[in-house]
Amino acid sequence: MFTIEYRIWGVVQGVGFRPFIARLAFENHLTGHVYNLGGGVCITVTGQADDLDSFGRGIIDGKPQPSEIVHLEKRILEEVRNYPDFTISESAEGENDIVFISPDLSICGNCEKELSNPSDPRYGHPFISCMECGPRYSIIDRIPYDRDNTSMVEFDMCEFCTHQYTSSEERRFHAQTISCHHCGPQLEYSGKEKEQCFGTAALRKAIEALNNGNIVAIKGIGGYHLACSALDEGAVRRLRLLKGREAKPFAVMFRDLDEIKRHCMVSEEESQLLQGKEKPIVLLEQKDSSILEEVSKGSRFTGCFLPYTPLQELILIETPPLVMTSANISDSPIIKDNYEMLAMLGGSLDGVLYNGRDIRTSIDDSVIKTVDSDVQFIRRARGYVPLPVYIKGTGKQYKGDILATGGQTKNTFCLSKQSDRMSGNLAYLSQHIGDLDNLRTYDSYLHNIEHMKTLMKVNPERICCDLHPGYASTSYAEGLGTELIKVQHHYAHVASVMAEKGIYDEVIGIAYDGTGYGTDGKIWGGEFLICSPSGFRRAAHLRYIPMPGGDSSVREAWKSAGAYLYSAGLEGYIRDERWGLLKKALDNGLNIVDSSSMGRLFDAVSSILDISHTANFEGESAILLENKAAEYMKLEDNKNISPYGFDIEDINGVYNINMNNCIRKIVEDKFSKVDITAIAFRFHRAVAELTAETCRMLRDKYGISKVAVSGGVFQNGVLFLMVLSELRRNGFEVFYNTVVPPNDGGISLGQTFAGIFKEGR
Ligand code: ZN
Ligand code: FE
Q1: Are strands 483-487 and 462-466 parallel, antiparallel or unpaired?
Q2: Residue 511 Cα, ligand 1 centroid: separation in angstroms?
Q3: Which of 230, 254, 271, 722 is least surrounded by Cβ atoms within 10 Å, i.e. has the fewest?
Q4: Which ligand approaches the C-alpha of residue 514 most closely?
Q5: pLDDT of residue 94
Q6: Residue 720's closest CA among 682, 298, 712, 555?
């Protein structure tokens, strides 16, 4: 007999967790007790080793659908405790400032059944929900999570709902979002001609409009979507004009999994992700060309997702697959308020389907893909936020609260709180905020910081921000007048992996990125940093290339190409007529910044190969280059092709990776009409090879064989997999992001990690 104590933190209160534990203990013949403790639960169980094992597995595998475990501690007690049976005890008092708020949950199986059952009182109710499903984070004003503290406060429960809400045997016992046809929010539809209808008529009208190739704004969980048939080329084109979005692929919502499988390849992992309670957008490789070019815009991947609200289910059973894109205009935040959406009616927007349940916090759909049998976040938002990341303390961690203000583009911020009881920190990462260049996005950034500080009871005394003097998040941080720690961008990328994976010893950190401000004032982005929780040293990087325009050349691959060719002594091969001006700037050193960016190297090669000279959005040129390499990989007999060469030079103790020979070979191959896909592939191989070679040299020098990789360039799946396999083949243990994005959306977690382990002034 043994006695084990579990302490579990996360969304475990008010979700049926304790009764579940009691049942599980009974099934496994265990005695003991369970009680709420602070923001978590404490369980003590006594029994046979086998039964205890099966109990432990059962907690993870069988936990109630709406619960979430953020951190679990297990210890075997020295003395066996004997209990007569298993009981649920009254809550013990304790530290109560640890907050876990549930993310928004997609409609559950039981509610789906009721929704489609004509004899159910909630048949066809577009806002059906229960203890296990419905909006949470997006409607909450303050804690505790009670109906009166959410935007459901506007809707008085009818007698029927009140009865279910107060009956402990009902599955809607204490379900704060409970409602029915009589007392819940009502659908409304406003058309372009000012026509208006309500309830079922509103739903019919919206479906009819969508089936007729019109664009309809549909209110969802975290904001409005702009929707139109994904099979109607004209409609999708008009949607692009309306959004001011010319070339980014659109996500498509499908009725069910089978429908997705008709268009895309779906692995077992992907199908689980698609159907999980978070219902993210999953990037899937297309099967054939059945998805309209106007939707996918040349991308190999289509963002696919399933309906996650009852309303979306009601619509999708009667329409073709729908393009469902966040309702925003040119990079502004997603629209959440009715008045604002209705003001846009007219022109290409044919109708608005809305309701009176307010959205308190706007939150976009999450976007993920699978790679290396794991998940990679592109955008972390609905379904995941505001679950915190647990960061274990070392005894030397900072004890106060921290705000990390994030980067500039794809911004998120992060609030962190230290807990003695948990001997560590909880880092609450915000939802994807967006690009802070946009004034309205910046406003929503400020609003969200305040909202989340209140919700999570965090009062930051230490602020972390990027080194870049031009970032809005940096100026904001500087203006707060509190202790400020500036964290180098690429160290923050690597630290985000360390935070996720609990790495406290030294690692070789690799950050391949677009741009980030270096400690020497130059633009970094092809970096090898020796990192520990307390700091980093730069050990290797791509050799600096004088880059015209600095940060502003992110969409202009032709400039990167010119700069790289010029540096490699291949000026004669520059075809671009704008080169003359650039050369003048380079010769005179005007508006030139040295750059070691990996993103710019990919841009340069894309342009040299005439694949893309100007990107419509950040990263596009590199994505198109990746597509070529992927095309080549589909061919037989590609295994023996060798990577292009490169040189690594030791300059004052820092390895500089010189790509001149690689660039020269690329130009030669292109000149002698070697297939572009083969060149693109060999280039990718070269980058994977230089990564492994540099790591081998650093292992010899520093004796470190753990590697953490991050940075936006690793969204390139072809490169990412090549790098992983090269590193593993060379005996390295490799870590990468699976909880936050490797792009700048993960920066704030890394800043937080650095802030926690930085000694104070
Ligand atoms: Zn439900
Ligand atoms: Fe970055």
Answers
A1: parallel
A2: 42
A3: 271
A4: 2
A5: 61
A6: 712
Which listed ligand is nearest to 713 at the C-alpha? 2
104 alpha carbon to ligand 1 midpoint, in Å?
A: 12
DSSP secondary structure letter of residue 152? G
- In angstroms, the CA 339 to CA 351 distance is 13
Residue 342 makes CB contacts below 8 A (sequence gap 6+) with: 190, 352, 354
Q: What is the 3-state secondary structure (H, E, C) of 2-36?
A: EEEEEEEEEECCCCCHHHHHHHHHHHCCCEEEEEE
Q: Structure tokens of 46?
A: 């006594």
Are the beta carbons of 662 and 683 closer than 8 angstroms? yes
Q: What is the pLDDT of residues 223-274, one digit of tens each?
A: 999 999 999 999 999 999 999 877 889 999 999 999 999 999 999 999 999 9
d(CA 342, CA 409): 29
**Per-residue pLDDT, 555:** 87
**Phi, then psi, of 47 in degrees rounded to 5:** 175, -170
pTM: 0.96
> Which helix (H) or strand (E) element contains residue 412?
none
What are the tens digits of pLDDT across the range 680-694? 999 999 999 999 999
Strands 733-736 and 706-710: parallel
Contact 282, 270 (CB under 8 A): yes
pLDDT digits (tens, 9 = 90+) for 185-204: 999 999 998 899 999 999 99
Using CB atoms within 10 A of its CB, is residue 743 exposed (0-12), middle (13-18) or buried (19+)? buried
- Rounded Cα distance, 276 and 282, in Å: 11
Compute the distance from residue 506 Cα to the ligand 2 centre, in Å.
21
Q: From the CA of 744, how far away is ligand 2's center (Å)? A: 5
CA of 632 to the centre of ligand 2 (A): 28
Task: Please name every residue paired with 32 in a beta bridge, in sequence order, or none if there are none.
Answer: 45, 86
CA–CA distance, 628 with 612 (Å, rounded to integer) = 11
10 vs 387: CA distance, rounded Å? 8
Q: Which two tokens stand for residue 37?
A: 């403790």
Helix extents (H) in 116-275: 159-166, 199-211, 233-243, 257-263, 268-275
Q: Report pLDDT digits (tens) over 154-196.
A: 999 999 999 999 998 899 998 999 999 999 999 999 999 889 9
